Amino acid sequence: MLLFFRYQQSHLILILVNIWLLLIKLQTLKKNSYLRVDGLTLKWWLNTNKELLTNLLNQGSVSIEELLENFHAWLEELKEDGGEIYFWGNGILFDNKMIQYQFEENGLDYPIYYKNDRDVRTIVDLTCAKLGMSEKELKEELNDDLLVKHNALDDVKYQIKLVTKCYEVLID
Fold it and tell me: Which residues touch 5 (CB under 8 Å, ≥6 apart)?
């Protein structure tokens, strides 16, 4: 799950993207050897939310190359507007690296300055330490029953709430 923060005129603008919502297509998985779904992943999805899996597999109509080119162009446009992009992921060596790998595999540079990769897990850990509570307790406090778990857009909405809360706690 990914989200981007960009500062513009001292306002925090939250720009949300979940690239995997658009990237995961069966024909793309078959075409690219580096995007493989193993049996355990498929079993997990089937046991998690079959309806959501069906929706994910049937959404989108652009190729992975076109998607990445459009995403890359959008990030470059944001940079040209004078904003610095902070790329948030659940582990800079996981989400962020997957996106970097996808860009590079398709001949695109990774447009995020290396110091701007951010880790949601770290900010959550720091916040929990300051509040004296567990990660589970913090996340339950922000739980929203209207959001569908593992739905990309809903996951991003939740993650925005989580990181915003963490910022408020740490800056207070």
Answer: 12, 13, 14, 15, 85, 86, 88, 118, 163
